[in-house]
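Consider the tokenized backbone below.
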């Protein structure tokens, strides 16, 4: 299976080791996911948005192109081709101000283009998905907000944006899974490692 991983953290994918001020639990999760996928022989296609220098801002020229169902940014074109080839998509990022970081939001805005990734059959109706191979989407997030507050007080904004407002709207309604890691900075090293081991095992079963 061809698994596309979209990773968003300023420290990059290499920041998975436990080095103070140079570490990212998001990157540690990425490493665990990749180990798990590798054990089953899945093909991994990693998009490291910060390393790629992805610009999340939609310019007026890009918006005009988007409305004409074309793309002018070569990196966005590359991302679209890789998205279309994917069997499964995994997003990994920290939650900031209850939502995804800017690069992931820009990835949705610019890469998920009408006429390329989805088609609007009729205004006000669900979209048609143009990703021919997609079988599911996994979301891994890291946050300091307690899980109870995020789910029941704030109302799960990230799943509303990414699942309900994006993939379900495109017609992908099954095999959407969210794995949330809260308060990792306050947990012991053993506890953090246990979560990483569990994540590796989970994605070895994908």
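A designed sequence for it:
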């Amino acid at each position: 299976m061809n698994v596309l991983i979209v990773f968003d953290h300023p420290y990059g994918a290499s920041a998975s080791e436990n080095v103070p001020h140079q570490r990212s639990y998001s990157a540690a999760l990425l490493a665990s996911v990749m180990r798990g996928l590798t054990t089953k022989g899945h093909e991994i296609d990693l998009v490291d948005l910060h390393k790629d220098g992805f610009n999340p801002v939609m310019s007026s020229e890009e918006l005009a192109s988007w409305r004409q169902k074309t793309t002018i940014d070569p990196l966005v074109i590359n991302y679209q081709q890789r998205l279309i080839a994917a069997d499964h998509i995994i997003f990994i990022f920290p939650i900031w101000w209850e939502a995804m970081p800017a690069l992931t939001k820009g990835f949705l805005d610019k890469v998920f283009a009408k006429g390329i990734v989805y088609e609007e059959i009729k205004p006000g109706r669900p979209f048609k998905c143009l990703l021919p191979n997609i079988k599911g989407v996994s979301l891994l997030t890291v946050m300091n907000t307690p899980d109870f507050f995020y789910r029941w007080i704030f109302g799960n904004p990230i799943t509303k944006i990414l699942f309900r407002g994006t993939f379900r709207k495109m017609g992908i309604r099954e095999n959407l899974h969210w794995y949330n890691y809260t308060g990792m900075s306050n947990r012991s090293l053993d506890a953090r490692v246990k979560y990483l081991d569990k994540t590796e095992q989970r994605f070895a079963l994908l």
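The CA atoms of residues 95 and 107 lie 16 Å apart.
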